[in-house]
TrEMBL record:
This is GlcNAc-PI de-N-acetylase. It holds the Pfam family PIG-L. It comes from Streptomyces finlayi. The keyword NADP does not apply. Keywords: Zinc. The keyword Iron-sulfur does not apply. One of its GO terms (biological process) is glycoside metabolic process. It comes from the Bacteria. PANTHER family: LMBE FAMILY PROTEIN, N-ACETYLGLUCOSAMINYL-PHOSPHATIDYLINOSITOL DE-N-ACETYLASE-RELATED.
Length: 244
């Protein structure tokens, strides 16, 4: 019998969520983010790409414009006021390396979060399906940037730009992880999370009606019930919590 999920810690005020694509957070973590913002916490989003390679039927430049717009709409629905997009990293071809670590480190130093949020970066999902290189490389770069942010000498040019080291990151919360061990009660905010996923209408339509994630309500309600089985029966979203 799997162990019950522990409640996520609440001794923090600022979070920075860093993921590869628009909509990555809306497949679960955004429900928890709605609960956090409702409790008065501040959450900022950082997208490594604009998801420009996500729809075969749409030109990448147009897809980037549409998906960026939909991400802003989705974020607002869960109380997130600031969404940033990196330049220089291509959807479908995100590379782990110093440029990505530097860009994420700079964002951490700008926003000075207590907790970082990202998506599963392990090789496989809970289902056993293989994870994408964009998710794997983004998450690994974020984990390393959490340490880089506090080291003045890793990227000394950042301090020269006025981005002083930040050693205040305490946790990384990984949504969709097969190693999830904590959860957030989303019973009061699930409708907000569903609306946020539905804001990605262009991409959901691209998936087609038979795709298991195309129906936002069915998908997220099922997920929250599943996680709730290990959280005293309360609808929940689960995370792997890693200390930094």
């Amino acid at each position: 019998m799997p162990a019950p999920y522990a409640p996520m810690p609440d001794d923090w005020q600022r979070a920075l969520a860093v993921v590869a694509h628009p909509d990555d957070l809306e497949y679960g973590p955004a429900c928890a983010i709605a609960a956090w913002t409702a409790a008065g916490r501040d959450v900022t989003y950082l997208m490594v790409t604009r998801g420009e390679a996500g729809m075969d039927s749409m030109d990448p430049q147009e897809a980037a414009r549409v998906r960026e717009q939909e991400e802003h709409q989705a974020a607002a629905l869960v109380g997130v006021k600031e969404v940033e997009f990196l330049d220089g990293h291509r959807d479908g071809a995100i590379e782990y390396g110093l440029p990505l670590r530097r860009d994420i480190t700079a964002a951490i130093r700008r926003h000075r979060p207590d907790i970082l949020v990202t998506l599963n970066f392990h090789e496989r999902w809970r289902s056993g399906d293989w994870n994408s290189p964009d998710h794997r490389n983004t998450g690994l770069a974020l984990m390393d940037a959490a340490g880089d942010a506090g080291n003045r000498w890793t990227f000394p040019e950042l301090a020269q730009q006025g981005l002083d080291p930040w050693k205040g990151v305490r946790y990384v919360a990984v949504g969709g992880s097969p190693l999830a061990d904590h959860a957030v009660d989303v019973s009061d905010v699930l409708d907000q999370g569903i609306a946020a996923l539905e804001a990605h209408r262009t991409y959901l339509n691209h998936l087609g009606p038979d795709h298991p994630m195309a129906d936002a309500r069915t998908f997220l309600e099922r997920k929250a019930r599943m996680f709730g089985e290990r959280f005293a029966g309360t609808p929940a979203i689960a995370f792997e919590l890693i200390g930094v």
